[in-house]
Every structure is written in C-alpha cells, then in structure tokens.
Amino acid sequence: MTVQEQFLSFAGKPQASLPTPSLLVDEKRLAENLECMARFFSDKPAKLRPHVKSHKCSALALRQVQAGAIGVTAATVEEAEAMATSGIRDILIANQVVNPFWVDRLVTLASVCDLKVAVDSERTISLLSQAAGGRAEIGILVEVNVGMDRCGLPPGETSCALARRVASLRGLRFRGFMGYEGHAVGLEDGMSRAEACKRAMSLLTGTVEMARRQGLPAEIVSAGGTGTYDVAGAFPGVTEVQAGSYALMDLQYRRVRKEFQPALRILSTVISRPSPTRAVADAGLKSLSTEFGIPEAVAPPGVRLQDLSEEHSILEVDEENRLGPGDRVEFLPSHSCTTVPLHPCMFVVQEGLVREVWMIDGRRGFRPQSCEAPRGPRASEGR
Length: 383
Known about the structure:
Layout: H1 3-8, E1 22-26, H2 27-41, E2 47-48, H3 58-66, E3 72-74, H4 77-86, E4 90-93, H5 100-110, E5 114-119, H6 122-132, E6 138-143, H7 157-168, E7 172-178, H8 190-213, E8 220-223, H9 229-232, E9 240-241, H10 251-254, E10 264-275, E11 278-281, E12 296-299, E13 303-308, E14 313-317, E15 328-332, H11 336-339, E16 345-350, E17 353-359
Parallel strand pairs: 1-16, 2-9, 3-4, 4-5, 5-6, 6-7, 7-8, 8-9
Antiparallel strand pairs: 1-10, 10-11, 10-15, 11-14, 12-15, 13-14, 16-17
C-alpha cells in the first residue's frame, strides 16, 4: 500500500484513529462558508473565482465550483495543473510565470483548458508568445499595481500600453486586467478596509475604461480577496473576485470576517507532561506556520500554546487538567495558506468520523509530471 493509499484508507474511520499531526476540516463549517460566499454572489454582476493557493486541494476546489464559482485562481503552475486534471477548465494563474521549465508546462496546460495568466512586462509576454508558438493560445491579464506594491504596472497608460502589445503577439490573447488590493484585505477596521479597497478598485477600473476607449476589449476585470470580497464584488466594473481563505479560515481572517467560521484545525497528540503546568505535543513548526502569529489551542479547554519548535508544541496547562501522553489537542492555525501545504492531505470530519480524505495535490512536488488533459469532474478521494 502506498503512502497515499494509507491516508485514503482512513475514510469512514473514527477521528481518534488518525495519525498526528494531521489537518482536520469540519465538514459542516466548510459547507456553511461555501454557502455564505455563494449567497453573496448569487445576485451580483461579479462572480467568484476562488484562489486555491489557500488550500491547494482539487477536491475542495470542485466543491467551490459546485457551489457556483466560475473557475479558480492559482498562484503556481503546479496548482493549476492539479485543478485542470480534476476537471476544472477555467483557470487563472494570478502570478508572473517566466522560468522556462514552468513556461513550457504552462503552454501544455493552455492547450487543454481555458487558461489565463498575469503579466507585467514586455519581456514576459515575449517569452510567453515565443513558447506558445502554434501549440496553444494563452489568455493574458495585465496586472495593475493598485497599491500593494508587489507585482503590477502603474495604472493608466503604462498598463494599457502593455495590453496593446499583448494584443499584437502571436499565441497570446488579451483578456483583461487584474489587480490585488492585498494591502487592504487585512485591515481590521471595516470602514478603513472598505475605503482602501474602493481606492484600489478605482485605479483598476479607471485603467480598464482607458483601455476600452483605445479599442481593447477588456472582458475580465479580476480583483479582491476574502477581506474585501463584499466591496470588490459590488464595485462597478469588477467582473470577478479571487477570495480564497473564506473556505477554511484562520486566526488572521477571523479578526476581519466573522461571517465565516474557522473550519480548519491541526490535530496533535500529547507526548509528554513533564510538569504540572506544562505539556508537550507533536505538532511543531513543520506542521504549523507562524508568520502571522502563534496558533491557538482550541481543544481541550484549559490549554494554551506557549511556543513551537520543529516537532514540538509547548503547552501551558492548568494543574487540575489531567491531559497526558496519548491525549489529543487541536490548534487553530494563524495562517491557513502556509499551514496547509505542510501536510499531504486533509481529513474531512463530522461528529468524530472521517467522512472524506482529500489529498493536497496542488502543493509543490506532489505532481512529478505535467498535467494530463482534463477528464471531467471526478468524485473526491476517499468518498
């Protein structure tokens, strides 16, 4: 039995039988989160294109599409390949792809699905055009810097000039513009967050209007994240929103978007109780990320996470708490996007039972070869 088969074999078994550390997904909370987001977009001109970098899991992405998403957003070619192989045909890589190895795989992917990719330089589009040749047509979104100061060209004529150049190159098809207001999504004050998002969307849609006056058919205007989905999703001219973290949630976003429930947990096992007030569990930095702060111990009561080392979590425990070796502890990650790819799979649980096992098939190194042609939606693993 392969390692993957071993993980899949836990479907239908008690949660208590799982190895640790493991990723748990609460089935009920996940379903509620998907429904909440779908309900918002049900009457909006803009549609949802969830960002799968948050979970890198094609089985979960299929659930999002079944709930009404028009397709998915990816951060890497590997993520996009996993989504395409699962049967998802409408994919945006919201990132610059310039390494020849990944460019070649991107072209292969574009030959079997409706693929779009972000660009922000003449050199990048020349590289993509040359690689595409007669093999495929690559959809292009020009990325506009709307205030995050990461990738993207200045709004206005600079971005429009690159769009005009895209439209002239063989193997490329200009589809529109994208901009990510990442500097706004985490602002805890709702009014400040909304105003920052509106300023960013004005820069993006202003560029789109300029391009259309120049005869460029910008059909796609892509933006937004979980923190700003309601503002970007209702902003005139935005056609799609790339929210991703809403599905699983984490400590960081729980402070900002309370309408979504934290569905993700890390299950860990206590391995030592060396003092009346200290216990040690087996989830460390190699299974929990900390760049947005230390995770929170959420079960059982009376346990607080103090520190993490590579393979250990140091817990402060009330003296009367009988927690000891072999007992289980659950943590809420501070950042789901960087915690999930530390694990090979996620266990979908409800009422103490593992309902499904979903492989995290979009994480780096999971797929040793380029994607196959999409085969149509499949049942998720372990169902």
